[in-house]
Design a protein that fits this description.
The chain is α/β, with parallel strands linked by helices and about 325 residues long. The chain folds into two domains: about 10-150 and about 270-300, 3-Layer(aba) Sandwich (Rossmann fold); about 150-270 and about 305-330, Response regulator (Rossmann fold, 3-Layer(aba) Sandwich), CATH 3.40.50.2300. It contains 14 helices and twelve strands. It has helices at about 1-15, 20-30, 45-60, 80-90, 105-110, 155-165, 180-190, 205-220, 235, 240-250, 260, 275-290, 310-315, 320-325; strands at about 30-40, 70-75, 95-100, 120-125, 140-150, 170-175, 200-205, 225-230, 255, 265-270, 305-310, 330. A seven-stranded mixed β-sheet has the order 7-6-8-9-10-11-12, sandwiched between helices. Helix 4 (about 80-90) crosses helix 5 (about 105-110) and helix 8 (about 205-220) packs parallel to helix 10 (about 240-250). About 45% of the residues are buried.
């Protein structure tokens, strides 16, 4: 009876044809599961661009959402408590891989799991943050794409002095609740004396405190005042308010990412974070296919880009030098 059943099964398979058999096998195959925890709000165009880049990357790697891949997404809204809850939720899903965006997301995730593979993007100095043992050999359950080392923050101060040599007082907008906020401010503060600059910290707690603190700073010696925005989730969430306040007080300001300049900021220097999320898909795919997360080296940015908004420069009365314009990767007119 067993042999007859086997022969009947083989005959049925032959009758169905190779395509049908392949379809049946695919139905039985468990879709792989990826959970994504992104630091921004779901309505933020930047957040949607990062997610779209990742999903496009996964498609290019041969993964189809709704077919051989399931993706569960949680949003952090730039809020530490929301991100902590989101981290607990994605770990509880027991996915095959977690996609994490920024240090603010990585820190709570690694407190909860040291077994689920994590691929990160837009993380600053993952070695100093304790996320990996080293860039070439992460050695733990996380790897990915770093945006910069903390020391790179001094480039913003150097750029500010180049576009506004008269600046002597610099407000630095950061978030002390973000793991990457204080180290970035500290790097800028350490360089300031050598450039003849006094740094004034503005700890972004909420929109109201931001309005108050920037206004108080700008009431000082305004012609010699400038502003630097660090690369943290909180400042990205509040970027419209920051750009508006800078414009109202006509402060020369340097930003960490091009999205600020696209929204009306003066000048930015930093990596392409959207592209990092697309590249993260290649690591997620390799892990799903069996490679060990601990053996995939952390990758650094392919390049850092300088973006200039010429219209904003005219509005606040900044004359950009020929060298700055020549060095810019893009000038928004």
């Amino acid at each position: 009876m067993r042999r007859r059943s086997f022969v009947f099964g083989m005959a049925s398979a032959a009758a169905l044809g190779a395509d049908a058999v392949g379809a049946l096998a695919q139905q039985r195959e468990r879709p792989r599961r990826v959970a994504a925890l992104l630091n921004l709000t779901s309505s933020d165009p930047e957040a949607q661009a990062r997610l779209a880049a990742f999903l496009q990357g996964m498609q290019e790697e041969g993964w189809r959402v709704g077919g051989n891949l399931r993706v569960d997404i949680r949003w952090g809204d730039g809020d530490a408590e929301t991100i902590r809850k989101g981290a607990a939720q994605v770990v509880a899903l027991e996915p095959d891989v977690i996609l994490a965006s920024t240090n603010q997301v990585m820190t709570p995730l690694l407190r909860i799991t040291r077994t689920i593979p994590i691929v990160f993007a837009a993380v600053t100095d993952p070695v100093a943050a304790g996320h990996v043992a080293s860039l070439p050999r992460p050695g733990r359950n996380a790897t990915g794409f770093t945006s910069a080392e903390y020391g790179l923050s001094v480039k913003w101060l150097e750029l500010l002095k180049e576009i506004a040599p008269q600046v002597r007082r610099v407000a630095v907008v950061y978030s002390s609740s973000n793991p990457g906020g204080v180290p970035q401010f500290a790097a800028i503060q350490s360089m300031a004396p050598s450039l003849g600059v006094e740094t004034v910290p503005i700890d972004l707690v909420n929109a109201e405190s931001l309005e108050r603190d920037v206004a108080a700073f700008a009431r000082g010696d305004n012609p010699k005042a400038g502003l630097i925005v660090t690369r943290t989730s909180e400042v990205i969430v509040h970027r419209e308010t920051i750009i508006r306040l800078v414009a109202e007080h006509k402060l020369p300001a340097v930003y960490p990412l091009r999205l600020f300049v696209n929204d009306g900021g003066l000048i930015s220097y930093g990596p392409d974070i959207v592209d990092q999320h697309r590249r993260a898909a290649s690591y997620v795919s390799r892990i799903l296919k069996g490679e060990k997360v601990s053996e995939l080296p952390v990758q650094t940015p392919i390049k850092y880009e300088t973006i200039v908004n010429a219209k904003t420069a005219k509005t606040i009365g900044i004359s950009l030098s020929a060298s700055v314009l020549a060095r810019a990767d893009e000038v928004i007119e």
